[in-house]
Amino acid sequence: MRVLFASSEVFPLIKTGGLADVSGALPAALAAAGTDIRLLMPGYPVAMDGVTGKRRVADLGDSLGVGSPASLVSGKMPGTNLPVWLIDCPALYDRPGGPYQDASGADHADNHMRFGLLSRVAAQLSCEDSPLKWRAQVLHANDWQTGLAAAYLHHWGPRERAGTVFSIHNIAYQGLFPKKVVAPLGFDWSLFGMDGFEFWDQLSFLKSGLVFSDKIATVSRRYAKEIQAAPFGCGMEGVLAHRHADLCGILNGADYAVWNTATDPCLAQRFATADMVAGKAANKAALQSELGLVLDPEAPLLIIVSRLNDLKGMDLVPAVLPAILRLGGQLAVLGTGDAALEASFRAAALQSPGQVAARIGYSEELAHRLMAGGDMLVMPSRFEPCGLTQLYAFRYGTVPVAHAVGGLADTVVDAGYDSLLNGTATGFLFEHTNPGAFQWSLERAIDLFRRKEDWRRLQGAAAAGDFGWDRSAECYQDLYQSVLPHHDGKTRRPV
Ligand code: ADP
């Protein structure tokens, strides 16, 4: 089966969050399972530099009239044989800053064109207009940045086209633009209505993906249910409830080639799962000394590796911090995000040196060391479609303390009476989004941390869990099968 996987960020070429991890690992797992899969992404400078064996394979013209023609560059993902296509369009992608924002943190003013082109090329490679011999049978588009792809296919009405799957990795980000962008993106007004990509008189890339794709996937079963109602649906709950028969939840996986304590090059000391106790002790001591925390093996070391914003529940952390410190805990934070939250973590570190460390920034290496040296991973997310860090934490013997939403509820088994007794507990969950409930779960965790034998059992159960990509890849293969075009020569009617 030939699958085109379109995404705006792919690890290790460029990453701002979980979408990149998924886009790096899922196609690799699908390729290993026999799918003929190609990645498609914008030709950001770092991506152009990062791929190997680059060659130009097609001219794409200036279809959106941005002033410079685009071309398709083919290469391989670094260190692998996985094919990736980059859209080389310097007018849109060759600039400093991140994929969505400039260096000052402001959204690129032409994001609708940047991701309009990504969507358009994805659509082009999925129908008879493709300049390439290889033509997708299934187009798998991811998040709002690729949401217009299915709309282009619908609009063009090609004789033959790929089946389309649209994945929601985070519904809070919707790609909303003023309606004046409709014509520049190459559409007429026929799709700008309630049954199309119009959303409160604006154009929503995300809604386009939800309305025009054959099937919709999201990254956990629980999140698939949650987003069919407010507030989790973020305004899209009506559309999703309407399309519930075509909506499914497939849990993300962890890339155990990257997250493996026995081979991880970032760790102070690598260790096998069987040597978890000694391995973690060595990494904890190294981490405490790296971060300037008091060298104390008995102090529960809580870690945060996250974007710092209210969606991630980070505003709840300062409220529970005094309790953590009172119980002898330490907190190490790695993240970037809202300026006020960044400042508040910096201030906490200044106020309690030796007990709180804040690294405001992005560091893949430190994220690995935190996972290896920490005792608990704090995840009070208000929404969490799947969450990846808890899956990494499991393998690294770091116990998640998390809000029972989305993928967190689907993957963390709360340490209750029964689950502790039968050895299935893997973490701590709290139900209500308030500091009191959060604090209670932290107190339970710190209490159990001091009962060494129970704690090791919990770590063992968490590390033994298999959240690899193979299982998800099988589910995606079934989903792709369900949208394969009929071979009757007729255009498939988009749903
Ligand atoms: P989201 O996609 O909502 O940000 P996920 O838990 O799905 O959340 O994925 C977040 C990914 O980004 C994880 O791989 C996590 O380790 C990584 N990450 C987040 N912030 C940082 C940071 N400051 N430094 C390094 N890695 C980070």
Q: Give the oligomeric state.
A: single chain
Detail the poorly predicted runs.
Answer: 488-495
Spatial strand sequence of the major β-sheet? 3-4-5-2-1-6-7-11-12
Which ligands occur here? adenosine-5'-diphosphate
Gist of the model:
By secondary structure, the chain is of the alpha/beta class. The chain has helices at residues 18-32, 45-50, 90-93, 111-124, 149-156, 205-212, 221-226, 237-242, 276-291, 317-326, 339-351, 364-373, 389-395, 406-411, 417-422, 435-449, 452-464, 469-483; strands at 2-6, 36-42, 52-61, 70-76, 83-88, 138-142, 163-168, 176-178, 198-199, 202-204, 215-218, 247-249, 301-308, 330-337, 356-360, 376-379, 399-403, 428-430. It starts with a strand and ends in a 12-residue tail after the last helix.
Q: Can you characterise this structure?
A:
It is globular, with a radius of gyration of 23 Å. The chain has 495 residues and is of the alpha/beta class. The strands form three sheets. A nine-stranded mixed sheet has the order 3-4-5-2-1-6-7-11-12, with helices on both faces. The protein has helices at 18-32, 45-50, 90-93, 111-124, 149-156, 205-212, 221-226, 237-242, 276-291, 317-326, 339-351, 364-373, 389-395, 406-411, 417-422, 435-449, 452-464, 469-483, and strands at 2-6, 36-42, 52-61, 70-76, 83-88, 138-142, 163-168, 176-178, 198-199, 202-204, 215-218, 247-249, 301-308, 330-337, 356-360, 376-379, 399-403, 428-430. The chain contains 18 helices and 18 strands. Bound molecules: adenosine-5'-diphosphate. Residues 17-18, 21, 170, 305-307, 334-336, 362-364, 367, 387-389 line the site of adenosine-5'-diphosphate.
